[in-house]
């Protein structure tokens, strides 16, 4: 009887200790402190970082200087001798590949539905002037080279009204804003900048609006 009593008492003690341990565990599990576990589904989505759009700062116009000679002996402009009589339109069409016919004064409007146009020059484009002699006439020339923000060189025909072809002829932007809205053309026989200022309609580029290049 004594052995059984002692055994029963021991079991009761063990049961009591187990109950205390369980109570402590439940108390800990019921703590208000959240477990340091983060689930992907509950994490807030990162917000996109706002990036400011680049700001184009206005650039100062390049200085205008009409006193210098815009070429050296190796690239001087010239009038080609002993050539058949030519007009500016067929010559510009031949050099640029831009397939526009009709008087030069109509080129700018004709190009609007067919070719890329802009106010900035590029090699291979066609410079379109208006007011050649009077407002009803125009002139077209092929841009040969961009020398600077103020100077380019063109090849054109009949500028001197003799049906001649002139090559590598400097053209200078004389607009106050340096935006190629007004130009003067080098007078090859006299070796000076021509005194007349011409209004620029713009530049026709040899790329069709449908993405093709050159030709019709």
Could you please describe the fold and organization of this structure?
It is a single chain. The chain is of the alpha+beta class and 216 residues long. The chain has a domain at 77-208: Alpha-Beta Complex (endopeptidase fold (from Nostoc punctiforme)), CATH 3.90.1720.10. Helices cover 19% and strands 26% of the residues. It contains three helices and nine strands. It has helices at residues 2-29, 88-96, 107-111, and strands at residues 78-80, 115-118, 126-130, 138-146, 151-157, 165-173, 182-187, 192-193, 198-208. A six-stranded antiparallel β-barrel has the order 3-4-5-6-7-9. The protein starts with a helix and ends in an 8-residue tail after the last strand. Mean pLDDT is 80; it is low at 1-7, 20-43 and 49-54.
**Count of helical segments?**
3
- Strand tally is 9
User: What is the CATH C-level name of the domain at 77-208?
Assistant: Alpha Beta
What name is given to the CATH topology of the domain at 77-208? endopeptidase fold (from Nostoc punctiforme)
The average pLDDT value, as a whole number, equals 80
Report, as a whole number of angstroms, the end-to-end distance. 120 Å
| CATH architecture level-2 label of the domain at 77-208 | Alpha-Beta Complex
H/E element sequence: HEHHEEEEEEEE
Largest sheet, strands/sense/barrel = 6 strands, antiparallel, barrel
CATH superfamily of the domain at 77-208: endopeptidase domain like (from Nostoc punctiforme)
Spatial order of the strands forming the largest sheet: 3-4-5-6-7-9
User: Beta-strand level of the residues, as a percent range?
Assistant: 25-35%
SS content category: alpha+beta
Low-confidence parts = 1-7, 20-43, 49-54
The Rg value, from CA coordinates, equals: 41 Å
Determine the fraction of residues in helical runs and give it as a percent range.
Answer: 10-25%
